[in-house]
Design brief:
Largest sheet: 8 strands, parallel
Low-confidence stretches: none
Order of helices and strands: EHEHEHEHEEHEHEHH
Number of helices: 8
Strand content: 15-25%
Structural class: alpha/beta
Mean pLDDT: 96
Length: 220
């Protein structure tokens, strides 16, 4: 059974001078999740926001906070992000010495667990952990900065993961993030993605009409 398509707007493309208002607008525009990119300037070459900001943003919406940790070492910060209000905590296998330990740590705070694969990260890194996780985030750009061009070469990875999930009858969401727009969202969905992360397209297309842009990404 195919899962309902969900849209997770990335606040990396929002106006950081009024983030609370931006989140209220996304909520009212029909976003399913709020995607929060956390970067540390070490694991990826950029620095974004930390748990204190997420804590301040949490009261603005009841929507799921879909938090993507691009930080290393990741374990020492999981408690802070969990307590700040993250609902899904996604990490990279390369950012931990023990994937099982990191999964268990996230679960100990009653949060959903995601694992992210960079464009050149092999699916073999996560195959032994599929029964323990809720989400796989396939990056279709190199993580670090918004506004990059979509890399279609990651689609076979998405298709392969979808096949494995179906064959094993697992309840895992497949999320894709990186350069998702109106031209490529359909091929991403056809490859198996049921959650689309999009920043620039949602905030900038059609004169910033959030509701229209979320609807187009969902229905195309």
């Amino acid at each position: 059974m195919s899962k309902k398509i969900k849209i997770s707007p990335s606040i990396l493309s929002a106006d950081f001078s009024k983030l609370g208002e931006e989140i209220v607008s996304l909520d009212q525009a029909g976003a399913d999740y709020i995607h929060v990119d956390v970067m540390d300037g070490h694991f990826v070459p950029n620095i974004t926001i930390g748990p204190e900001i997420i804590k301040r943003l949490r009261p603005y919406t009841k929507k799921v906070f879909d938090v993507h940790l691009m930080i290393s070492p990741v374990d020492k910060y999981i408690k802070d992000f969990a307590n700040a209000g993250a609902d899904i905590i996604t990490f990279h296998p390369e950012a931990t010495k023990d994937i099982n330990k990191t999964i268990d740590l996230i679960k100990s705070f009653s949060k959903k667990v995601g694992i992210s694969l960079k464009p050149h990260s092999q699916t073999e890194l996560i195959l032994d952990h599929l029964s323990s996780i809720d989400l796989i985030l396939v990056m279709s750009v190199e993580p670090g900065f918004g506004g990059q061009k979509f890399m279609p070469e990651v689609l076979p990875k998405l298709e392969a993961l979808k096949k494995i999930i179906s064959e094993k009858n697992l309840n895992i969401d497949l999320e894709i993030d990186g350069g998702i727009n109106f031209d490529n969202c359909e091929i991403a969905k056809n490859a198996g993605a049921n959650i689309l992360v999009s920043g620039s397209t949602i905030f900038k297309e059609n004169n910033g009409n959030l509701k229209k842009n979320i609807g187009l990404l969902r229905s195309k």
